[in-house]
Records
---
Amino acid sequence: MGFDMSNLIMKRRSIRNFKDVKLTEEEIQELVKAGLFAPTSRSNKGVELIVVDEKDLILKLKDCRNTSTKGLETAPCAIVVIGDREKSDVWVEDGAIAASYIQLRAEDLGLGSVWIQMRNRVSDNDSSENEVRRLLSIPEKYGVLCIIALGHKNENKEAYTENDLDRFRVHYNKF
Ligand SMILES: Cc1cc2nc3c(=O)[nH]c(=O)nc-3n(C[C@H](O)[C@H](O)[C@H](O)COP(=O)(O)O)c2cc1C
């Protein structure tokens, strides 16, 4: 058998601890490519990515939300996934696919990642979306979906096995 997509999907786990090792420019470009090749509704291509590789800026991104941002503490790279709300009424779906592609490509490259939600979340002062827009000078028309924290894994997480499958969540021909 050639490339094992099933194995890749089962191996990907959320990684929230990263080694103090920068990603190479090649790695970053491969991750960006995965996000940009992800499909968008009517091919509107309204999803845009902001690569952040400056440590102090990544820590400021962490402050844009009041909880669940541990992954940004040690990540050497973060990709902010945003969508043009004027181009698409399904920018959330488009962005989610791009983010997932980035996460799977990260696993494929032997890297770890975690999705940090920003949409519908808050900091101590404002919505996380507003905080991120201000910090990175993102125009108002863009929604901020999430930040993918990326880096070399500094924790071990077991791959999923067939036993982890919730078969009850699948229905055939009727609910
Ligand atoms: C839409 C979405 C939002 C998430 N938000 C966060 C988050 O804000 N912070 C975080 O650490 N993990 C977040 N996660 C990661 C989930 O907690 C994680 O995927 C889930 O617990 C399953 O674990 P696994 O990724 O190892 O399979 C998010 C995942 C998704 C799909």
---
Amino acid sequence: MKSALRPRRWHVIGFSLLVMGTFGTPAAAQQAAARPTPTFSTDVAPILQRSCMSCHRQGSIGPMALTSYEEARPWARAVRQKVMAREMPPWYIDRRVGITRFKDDPSLTDEEIDTIVRWVDGGVPRGNPADMKPNPNFADQGLWHIGKPDVVVTMPKDLIVAAAAPDQWRDVMVDPGLTEDRWLMAVETKPTKGWRVVHHAVTTLVAPDGTSATDLGSRLLNEYALGKNEDVFPEGSARLIKAGSKINFNVHLHSIGEEMPANVEVGFKFYPKGYQPKYVADIIPVAGSELDIPPNTDNVRVDSYFRLKTPVRVLSFQPHMHNRGKAMCVEAILPGDGVPSIEHGDPIVPLSCVDRYQFAWHIAYHYAEDVQPLLPAGTVLHITAWHNNTASNKFNPDPNQHVTFGQRTVDDMSFAWMKFLYLSEDDYKQQLAERKSRQTQNQQ
Ligand code: HEC
């Protein structure tokens, strides 16, 4: 197993980029002919309700609404093209590598894509409007999903987004005045104004002076993106916010043809004072700062490593690169003889790959509960990032630039935010045993 995994993973990335264009082959068309044409009311609307309408409705960030037959009809060709290319909904995980089940996964199955394709190719029939289930209620957009927060931190001034401007990424630092360390039960970031222009808002914790735990001097706190706002830590687990921490809001703004003010807030729910969580949750950037991307070069690879001092349960993977980012994989190099290294031939377990990275979409991929990786102490997390600094990358502002690590979006980065629960040795063994016994039961 171990020797086969590495080359295969490389293969998979190249392969999945290739197959994108060849979906919907004559074989699929033949199959389609044999089955009745799907209708909007019965077959297509449920897909749009689950995976598209959170963004594609009046007042949201999608450029058009897709909440009714009348609205979707003129976009049918574009919808067909975007779902076949797996560009919509935004979800760029390579579904053939490593862990394939996630929480709140909006992506479409092959069958759902096939349904949309056959609906469009079959002349976009409406079906019986009475068969369409009611759309979800999106009225709770402005409400807190975590319940009433104990503390709300808001940006002091609105950001004004001009009617026409390139996408902007703005940083605003706020001191919430926390005078003591507190354990976080839940956190949520959301716009209060200008929903349509706020693509993403990422809040990071900036540690008090001198206690910065990472090279970046800050840690991801929470991220707002439509359809997944809140972060509620699993029961008994919590994240620590140190007294004196500041909050940085990083807001991705997108002009929509009219001037619009935007603002963002973050809400915290704390455990009672004096509470001690069983598990500590944390987010670590597995970072490679040695970034050297020559001009006009594709597939520039950089590797980053992070050694786990304690066992962990991995909750999520979130790649972070900038405009030249192309693909990223994370794998776990398990400790074999106590000295984890590739040379020693330790088992290497692929966890996830994002094969079509898009800087405009910061997506945290949260693993489904029963497949969250359980990793022993001594495991090395290995992140491989690939950048494309050629004109073939449509997001590349200038392929003639030599690009290195930096905060500006014209610089680049190559790290992954990995969210864990730290486990004790006993808890690790127990959780592993429980999972193994469940797997054996399922096989019987
Ligand atoms: C998280 C928000 C979000 C979700 C979910 C989403 N979209 Fe989009 N969609 C956007 C945004 C923003 C754009 C415009 C920018 C871009 O293309 O990235 C867009 C663009 C599009 C376009 C291109 C429109 C044009 O101007 O040509 C189509 C077609 C589309 N989406 C269809 C869909 C379909 C179908 C789904 C569900 C299967 C979906 N989208 C899910 C946000 C979303």
